[in-house]
Amino acid sequence: MNRWLLPEDIADVLPAQARKVETLRRTILDLYQSYGYELVTPPILEFLDSLLTGTGSDLNLQTFKLVDQLSGRTLGLRADMTPQVARIDAHLLNRTGVTRLCYAGSVAHARTPVGSLAREELQIGAEIYGCATWEADFEAITLLLKTLSTAGLEKVYLDLSHAGILTGILAEQKLDRNAIESLYDLLQSKDRPRLSQWASCLPAKTTEALMALTELNGPCAEVLVKAKKVLPQHAAIDQALADLERLVAAVSASSGLELSIDLADLRGYQYHSGVMFAAYVDKHPQPIARGGRYDHVGQAFGRSRPATGFSLDLLTLASLSPLSVRKLAITAPWINDAELNQAIDALRSQGEVVVQLMAGETADAAEYECDRELVKQGNSWVVKKK
Predict the structure, then answer these.
(1) Which one, 129, 161, 351, 370, has least CB within 10 Å?
(2) Domain 15-320 maps to which CATH number in 1.20.1250.20, 3.30.200.20, 3.30.750.24, 3.30.930.10?
(3) How far is 92 from 40, CA to CA, in rounded Å?
(4) Could you tell me the pTM of the whole model?
(5) DSSP percent split of the chain into helix, strand, coil, nearest 5
């Protein structure tokens, strides 16, 4: 057995890419801080019942499980940080006003997600708690767009949906959790024949509304007009369409953004309760980021709090970012010279990278471009272009 082999779809991040990832992480977290978001770092392991509280079975299937040798209870290796941050807001911070939290950390998936090449991600995201109005959703979308812009991704395609529409359609139906999860899968795949068969036991109007969802996608204005005509009258549906209409009007002013609506796009971990959104960029068929409102997750931790936010994989973002990964550096000889050491210390304190080379050694670092060198002129060490 080769000891250097890694598990399937698990990979090392090598120097140049690791620097790019870390630079983006710092820049993005500074961006979130400028909006008033506070950084939290949940543990990578939790008791399984806490980790999966308020979520669907799809997150359960993605979670690695192991037994805690101290307590004998089952632990989970997190596959998503959003429920953890909701627990922190609801149970630990216990604030009454609006709370903005951000995070960055590793998550692992027991199965490789559809459209992904990796089972480990570096998840970064931002969440707003305590604000039930559309402005919080708008702030989350705005911050997501700024995140992608920070990474140099200017052309973004944003797809909107709303979990409240399905809630309104099924309001009179008593369906168990397994049935709801099957319905989610059918809507996401837009499998009309199987969806029709699945809904055959439901009232005709409910079946018609579910079938209509598979065709309610495209330009925002067209979808909203059509949805008002074909979907049944219900308070939850009316509110959902009004939320989408308001957000479309607010977000459409963003430059470099193409907006669309897909009312059957209910992907995620099934904890969303309101507006949902997915961001796409060129050369990546799967969403680069997902987000939306999830007002009921905190309730499972003893305190129901309105919540909205988004997350994305920083490793994927870095791989798509056109930003340069190489940092300019200065070479210097590795000799015992007090004045040289002082010059090197001064340069490093100014933020410069100084690489000392032994005699006969050449600079061979993928993340650095050594375009200058420290040379001795008279009694002084000076930086010169190579």
Answers:
(1) 351
(2) 3.30.930.10
(3) 11
(4) 0.88
(5) 40, 25, 35
